[in-house]
Amino acid sequence: xxxxxxIKEDKPFIFNITNEVASxxxxxxxxxxxxxxxxxxxxxxxxDYGEIADAVVLNLGTLTEDRGEAMLKAGKxxxxxxxxxxxxPIAVGGTDFRTNIINEILTTVxxxxxxxxxxxxxxxxxxxxxxxxxxxxxxxxxxxxxKTVAKKYDxxxxxxxxxxxxxxxxxxxxxxxxxxxxxxxxxxGCLLSSFVGPFVSVVDDFYEAGIYAVTxxxxxxELAMEKAAGPGTFIxxxxxxxxxxxxxxxxxxxxxxxx
Length: 259
Ligand SMILES: Nc1ncnc2c1ncn2[C@@H]1O[C@H](COP(=O)(O)OP(=O)(O)OP(=O)(O)O)[C@@H](O)[C@H]1O
Ligand SMILES: Cc1ncsc1CCO
Ligand SMILES: [Mg+2]
Description:
Elements: H1 3-10, E1 13-17, H2 23-33, E2 36-39, H3 43-52, E3 55-59, H4 65-80, E4 85-88, H5 96-108, E5 113-117, H6 118-125, H7 143-153, E6 156-160, E7 164-167, E8 172-175, H8 188-202, H9 206-225, H10 231-243, H11 247-253, E9 256-258
Parallel strand pairs: 1-2, 1-3, 3-4, 4-5, 5-6
Antiparallel strand pairs: 6-7, 7-8, 8-9
Helix pairs in contact: 1-8, 2-8, 2-10, 3-4, 4-5, 6-7, 8-9, 9-10
Bound molecules: adenosine-5'-triphosphate (ATP), 2-(4-methyl-thiazol-5-yl)-ethanol and magnesium ion (MG).
């Protein structure tokens, strides 16, 4: 059975501690692909959700002390139960508060994948000092930098940009699907981070899961732009394209180069 068909059959439960900008969009994107999302950010239920989810997504946007505490609790609970955890380290390096919490997550939670823009990945690698805000401040997406981060944290790295890089520290894939209109709406990266959840829940090899997720998302963006007139109509068109995406379309349109 294809990966998307399996997601639609399993309806994986994706627990997201995410930001208030992305929350609604990410929930809709997850439903569109066939997953079942829950958004919550109180530390009081993070452990319970972290124990029963099929994947857990920790997104550092609009960070508060409560959200940080909830992320650590959910991440640890997921680890104890063998549930994959995805980290979106938004604007790491931008402020001490977020950088400290991100470092605590990185050192205490075992991650299935880190999904971040190329600038944030460069900060994690130590080759760039700070990301100013959520937008990437570098254009080039260097596979070697992504590989360094994958090795450093023993995880899969999904570093996004014009070309997305997916690596587990050994294998490297350049994923070339997508559309620049993704840069003209907010939270396209946040939705992608949540979107990786259902893929790591049904594909055991997280590197392959990451490639399939970014490729599917990129193809949906391309198909959405056949219908959209600009950013406003792109958002619902992207949700429509995600809803109608199939494994056959992914096979037909995928542009993946393994190095
Ligand atoms: N220059 C570009 N051209 C085409 N697609 C792009 C470009 N840069 C990023 N993308 C795509 O946009 C999506 C989001 O990636 P991006 O690197 O912008 O994440 P992000 O900065 O974390 O996003 P956000 O913080 O807005 O949620 C990905 O699917 C990526 O492939
Ligand atoms: C704009 C914005 N601010 C905090 S999180 C977020 C969503 C994109 O990362
Ligand atoms: Mg981001």
